[in-house]
Amino acid sequence: QSLVSGVSARGLDLKANATSDIELPVTLKFKDLKKLSGELWNKEKLSYQLNTTFNIKLPVIGNYAIPVSKQGEVPVPKMPKVKLKNVKLKDLGFTSADIIARVEVDNPNAFQLGMSNFNYQLKINDQDWGQGKLKTAKAIPAKSSGMIEIPLSLNLMNMGQSAYAILTGNAPLDYQLNGSMTVDTGIEMMKAINVPLDVKGSTSLNK
C-alpha cells in the first residue's frame, strides 16, 4: 500500500571516481499512518519498501534514469493514551484554592516517547479551571506510563460557589481536557510530532 510519495528537485554534482550521499526527506504523521489497514497496528514493526528513480545527466549520453529500491523495517508507532488520573487538593481557603491536575500518559509502544510543549485547557463539570503551557520535557519508557502534573490556582471569588462545593464534596468530577503536546518517537522519520488532545471522562478529587 502506497503511503507517501513526492519529487525532490534538489541537484547534486558528482565528481569523477567519487561518492556522495543523497538524502530523501520523508516525514510520516500519525494521521497518514491511520490509512494503513487495522491489522498492521497489532504488530511491533512494519516492513517498508522505498522505490525511487534518480535522473542523471551524463556527458554525451544526456539524461539517464537509474531506478533504486530499498527495503527494511520501522517500528509501528501507536498513539499515546491520555487521561486525567485525578485532581489533588493542596490548599483550600475561602477565596482561593491550589490544586494539581495529574494527567497520566500511557505509552503503548515498544520504544521510548519524549514529550514536551504540553498545551492544556481543563474543564471540570463544564467550568473552566485553567489553561496554559508546560515546556518541561518528559520521557516515558516503552510499554509504560508517566505522569504530568499541572499546578493550578483557582480564584473561588470569580468561579462562584459551585467550584467551592466541588472541592469540599466527594462526588466524581467530569472533566474535559483539550490542547496538544509534542511527541518525539526517536525514529528518524517521526520526530517532533504535534499530537492534539481532546479527552473526556470522570476522575476523583484527592484531599
- Give the CATH architecture of the largest domain: Sandwich
Our count of domains comes out at 2
Largest sheet: 8 strands, mixed
> Would you give the CATH topology of the largest domain?
Immunoglobulin-like
- Count every helix, treating DSSP H or I runs of 4 or more residues as helices: 3
What is the general shape?
elongated
- CATH class group of the largest domain: Mainly Beta
Low-confidence runs of at least 5 consecutive residues: none
The helix/strand order is: HEEEEEEEEHHEE
Task: Describe the structure in your own words.
The structure is a single chain. The chain is mainly beta. The chain folds into two domains: 1-76, no CATH class; 81-206, Sandwich (Immunoglobulin-like), CATH 2.60.40. Helices cover 8% and strands 55% of the residues. It contains three helices and ten strands. Strands 3, 4, 5, 6, 7, 8, 9 and 10 form an eight-stranded mixed beta sheet that branches. A two-stranded antiparallel sheet has the order 1-2. Strand 9 (173-184) and strand 10 (193-206) form a beta hairpin. The relative contact order is 0.17. The mean pLDDT is 87.
List keywords for this structure.
207 residues; mainly beta; Immunoglobulin-like; 2 domains; eight-stranded mixed β-sheet; two-stranded antiparallel ribbon; 3 helices; 10 strands; 8% helix; 55% strand; elongated
SSE arrangement:
Blueprint: H1 30-33, E1 45-58, E2 62-75, E3 81-92, E4 96-107, E5 113-124, E6 127-134, E7 138-140, E8 144-155, H2 156-159, H3 161-168, E9 173-184, E10 193-206
Parallel strand pairs: 3-10
Antiparallel strand pairs: 1-2, 3-4, 4-8, 5-6, 5-7, 5-9, 9-10
